[in-house]
Amino acid sequence: MKKIKIAIIGVGKMGKIRYNAMLRHGGYAIVSLCDTNIENLKGYTEKTYTDWKECIGSSDVDAVCVCTFNAFIPDIVCYALERGIHVFSEKPPGRNLSDTLRMKDACGKGTAILKFGFNHRYHNSIIEAKALIDSGLIGEVVCARGVYGKAGSPGFGQEWRNDASLSGGGILLDQGIHMLDLLCYFIGDFTSIKSTVNHLVWKEMNTEDSAFAILETEKGQVASLHSSAVQWKHKFDLDLICTNGYIALNGILTATQSYGEERMTYYRKDLAAKTGRLGKPLEHTLCFDSDESWDLEMREFYDVVVDGKELKQGTIEQAVNVMGLIEKIYQIGELEMEQ
Ligand SMILES: NC(=O)c1ccc[n+]([C@@H]2O[C@H](COP(=O)([O-])OP(=O)(O)OC[C@H]3O[C@@H](n4cnc5c(N)ncnc54)[C@H](O)[C@@H]3O)[C@@H](O)[C@H]2O)c1
Fold this sequence. Notes:
Layout: E1 4-9, H1 13-25, E2 28-34, E3 47-49, H2 52-58, E4 63-66, H3 73-82, E5 86-90, H4 97-108, E6 114-117, H5 124-135, E7 141-151, H6 164-167, H7 171-187, E8 190-198, E9 210-217, E10 222-228, E11 230-242, E12 245-250, E13 262-268, H8 269-275, E14 284-288, H9 293-307, H10 316-332
Parallel strand pairs: 1-2, 1-4, 2-3, 4-5, 5-6, 7-10
Antiparallel strand pairs: 7-11, 8-9, 9-10, 11-12, 12-13, 13-14
Bound molecules: nicotinamide-adenine-dinucleotide (NAD).
Nicotinamide-adenine-dinucleotide (NAD) is lined by residues 9-15, 34-37, 40, 52, 67-70, 72, 90-92, 117, 119, 174.
């Protein structure tokens, strides 16, 4: 099996998750690791660095995996792409749309692959829901409601995620981006947006702890999004209402299991016509007990880089689209934030 020689920049929570997924895949040779915090580099046998430029410059790598704070993503991504080095980068794709467009520009100038880690697209419930919608069995999605929320920890306001200069935004950019990306995945391009973005509890933070948005496509499909850091019991709920049925996605598997078990419930109108149970329908529920999203993402990156397959998820175009929507949600929601 051909191995992708790769360096991981940023060896915190996500860097470690990516490291382990690469080992499980078997097609990656992890050459070097870089983190500004040397504590995070202890115990590894790979060559380690604290300066990402030195790491990329001194390692003979085919690819880099970027898992740093958001603010450093564009510089590292562009530097690598300009040298013909493939990039797998964590979401969000930079702090704002202009960061993302910078990366798009660098990507367009060469042939190196750029993939962003929108891992929710690879959760089993999402894969099944997408297949069901694409089958046409329950018709077209006409509207959707997405709620994704977590409880901010006691030190939430002090986390780098809520320092706009390092993150670029609050809960919407950190977690809500996944739900927004899924709404785009299931529905398409949103052209009209209404939003409100707030500091409901953490008044002293310069990033939001809540964002509501109502999005509409040219065709009139409507979606609502609520992204929250004051959802004291963790919640992931996505309802997809279709012309001939619906899908309810409840819970999402994470390491902490705090979002509940991952379930996909669906119903098609034809069944109600047979049973006469209109409004109180018989549903099918699928429960998923494993999260392979990290593995599937590393597999897609490998297949694209090594076998020349088409990149389908986490493309720069998808990244630009979702970051454009986030920028508008912030603008319309009138959040004042100094980046
Ligand atoms: N796909 C997902 O579901 C998901 C989940 C969590 C985080 N993320 C993303 O992953 C990235 C990292 O988040 P995390 O949760 O691992 O955070 P973290 O704080 O656990 O890890 C970040 C690491 O990057 C290091 N770092 C920061 N700046 C650096 C630089 N310039 N050079 C080298 N190392 C640097 C830090 O020291 C830290 O060890 C973020 O962009 C975040 O949005 C994605």
